Amino acid sequence: MTKALLRIVLLLIAGTCLILLIEHYDADMQSGKESHESFKQLQQIGYNLQQQMDQLVSNGKQLAQELAADQGLLERLDQHPIIRDLGDDPAELAISFTRKFEVAAAFPVVGTESVLGINFFLSPEFMSSIRRALASRDTIIDSKVTLRQTDRQGIIIRTPYFDAHGNFLGLVTCALDLQA
Questions:
Q1: Distance CA 116, CA 13 (A)
Q2: Rounded distance between C-alpha atoms, residue 53 and residue 91, angstroms
Q3: Which of 42, 66, 100, 140 is the most exposed, having the fewest neighbouring CB atoms within 10 Å of its CB?
């Protein structure tokens, strides 16, 4: 009788251990599946962000080329397809244009008033990246910048443009709010 009782107790202990082991394995598998799904979502977000950044850089370069070729375009920018396709929320994306170092135009018009008239030459927090853009004569990206239009963290993409003689004319600046 004691042997039978001992066998039953051992079987119960073995069964309980087996159930706990299976539950632990199942929890690990579920956690791994969730981690994999999270990783895939992060990859997709990264891909989408890269696509958006590539488009912003491309748009900035296109606008810079057009401004270099037609300096009068600065007064007609509100009719440009890139500007017309721009959303109405400056918290998402704002584009500004300078003559030399002073912001002459910003879009969307409502919400970007705080950047109009800024002279970057007098703003040391921006001049290091502007000097890099001028030295490379190409687009540069500033990260971890506090945007003046939203007072939140963002990314600034700057593309300088030059006349046919290589003289600096201005900057196309795209400001992307990371918290929008």
A1: 76
A2: 16
A3: 42
Q: How many CB atoms lie within 10 A of CB 116?
A: 13
How many other CB atoms are there within 10 angstroms of residue 170's CB atom? Answer: 25
Distances (CA, A) of 40 to 44, 52, 63: 6, 18, 35
Q: Residues 78, 79, 81, CA angle at the centre, nearest 5°?
A: 105
pLDDT in tens, 49-86: 888 888 889 999 999 999 999 888 888 888 888 888 87
Beta strands 93-99 and 168-177, pairing class? antiparallel
Cβ-in-10-Å burial (0-12, 13-18, 19+) of 74 comes to middle
pTM: 0.73
What is the distance between the alpha carbons of residues 99 and 119, in angstroms, rounded to a whole number?
10
How far is Cα 149 from Cα 24, in angstroms, rounded to an integer? 51
Gyration radius of the chain over CA positions: 28
Question: How many separate helices (H) and strands (E) can be counted in the chain?
Answer: 3, 5
